[in-house]
Structure prediction request, 747 residues.
Amino acid sequence: MELLQLKNISKSFTAQKAIDNLSLNIQPGSIFGLLGPNGAGKTTLLRIITGIFYPDSGEVLLDGRPYNPSEDVGLIGYMPEERGLYKKMKIGEQALYLAQLKGMSYAEAQSKVKHWFVKLGMESWWNKKVEDLSKGMSQKLQFVTTVVHNPKLIILDEPFSGLDPVNANLIKEEIFHLAKNGSTIIFSTHRMEQVEEICDHIVLMNKGQNILEGTVHEVKQRFKENLFMLKLQDTPSEIPSPAFSLVQFTPKGYIVKLHEGAQPNDVLRHFIQQNNNVLAFNEMLPSLNDIFIKLVEHTPTARKFDQSIA
Amino acid sequence: MNKTFLIAQREFITRIRNKTFILSTLLTPLLFIGIIGLSTYFAQKNDEEVTVAVFDESSLFASQLISDKNITYTAVNKAVYDSVIKGISTSAEYSGVLYIPSINIDKPEGIAYISSSQLGIFNESQIEETLNEVLKEKRMIQANIDTAQLNLIKQNPIQLKQSVINKEGSTTETNSGISYMVGYVSGMLIYMVMFIYGAMVMRGVMEEKINRIAEVIISSVKPTQLMMGKIVGIGAVGLVQFVIWLLLIILGTSLIGASASPDSLKSMQELNTNPAASSAIVKGMQMTIGQINMPLILGMFLFYFITGYLFYASLFAAVGSAVNEDPQDAQSMMFPITIPIIFSLVIMSSAITNPTGPLAVWCSIIPFTSPIIMMARLPFGVPGTVPYWQIGLSMVMMIMGILTVTWLSARIYRTGILMYGKKPSWKELMKWLFIKQ
Prediction:
């Protein structure tokens, strides 16, 4: 059963629709990428999921039940894009405080926070103040406060911004680990290479609508353009053939496009018949980045400038 | 509710552990006592000592001017007068010259004090008074009035005692001076509470918004809980700080009182021209302080302290949530909130001179002004000056006011706290009140 179901969610602010009849199902244990250009409504959607906003219409079901923000708060961990911590508060106390706000008892919060601090090598920070931390360090702290209560659903908005590769890797490993242990992760970002690396499902939003959804593999298959990279020993005498045509010649090799109904083997056969050795032949799947740009480009500015939209 | 408590607890603990808080809590009473001490000291010390050369052409005054602690009169002749006038700026002997021309006592004109530096206000009036005293004697002699007899007549003047009678017919002595003072001080204190702690709430909300921690917290608790937690936490801080201040001031003043040397007490006594009358005033003061219903005043003070704070703190919270980094925005949005507070202070000064006037009565019932105005009126007597129905109505209105204002503020707060960008207009704020979220 789905962990999170969004059914026909709509949400308008004074000037325009932020979320327009959006539906979405998220399976437990998956790492779900929420993509979209600036102003697509991602933050609003996340705020609806976390109960900060109520949708104008539609339903949010968590574990098959209507989501009740005041009771189900412990089930969700949310790390907003704009991070915030109390600057003057000691780090240990801050983590304890935020954990208690999620409904943990003091003792429970203490043991969990300590556990995470040890795990991420932060024990020595306990009595420091947030203002003494670097941006990356406070990012780690923020991550800990997001996951410390072992939520079923973890929502991370741009979790890697500001982290160096070592710490980014550390957090990435933790994300995989949490997903393996049954947590579901919604991961909102603009960084496509991270999505390809981490997520198994994605949804692409634009102008408040769900315009593309599926596993990363499925999506790539759907948008592939039958392009292949071909590396040959000799300069071929004759391209194209009825099966394919040459798109581009690059120093790495030839990019060829299969014609409708042709098979990859047709290309190989063509060159084998010519006695030209095929050194490399592989399919060129579009990157998520390409797909993203293709889908989003040329749509008018995602949202009109309106400061009253949160 | 539990989470509101958690938030209030954090707010309270982090604030009272703050060094600035500890310093200001300890230093403010010191400053207070210091100011009181200094002003008492200077009041006692009075003006500088002056030596006045008196050149009296009328020969009416010179021999009768009695020197006192600060002013020494020395009669001089024309020659000395001339030389003093010439060398007045260098003369160490005389601070100045009092010139009295040959005058008619019915029309004393042309009396002048000449010096290189101006007299202090006390010395000036002292000299004037001394001259007038002599003039009065001369005139009485001229009118054939026996001064000894007159002094006899002037003895034991009347002191008006005010009493307030209640329905049961028992009377209480009152003293409007004391009521005035108690009313003024408690009104001022409430004013300070509303401003200091209200502004503290506003800054706290702004900090949470600017640090972007609000969104993290609001994903765990309702915005209203966050707002109420903050208000309650800071209110508790204020209460603790006030109690500490009160204790320190009481302790400090009693220490000063105990350590004051008998000498300075004696000189204070000397300053009083009529020691008997002054001790009667002191006795009267003690009596009327006893007569003022202290438990009632303290209880009501606590009530208006808390409710006045809650009323304005939620308004300040709403403003804090609506503005962004720019402190000037905060200033301009705070303005409409500060107006009723300052307005209360203006009305208070008229309310304590006329505590039963319609302005005072109505302003002590309307929640915006009632904490200050009611506290200013109460010391004048309950139920004499302030009937029970007025207190009851004021309290009920205050609680209803808090509920309304908190509800409205919470609606602005929950939208404002997540809103970044330019400062909202008043029209937008109105819209926020009716947004469904």
Notes: Confidence is low (pLDDT under 50) at residues 263-278 of chain B. DSSP finds 16 helices and six strands in chain B. Residues 2-30+175-255+263-434 of chain B form one domain. The two ends of chain B are 21 Å apart (CA to CA).
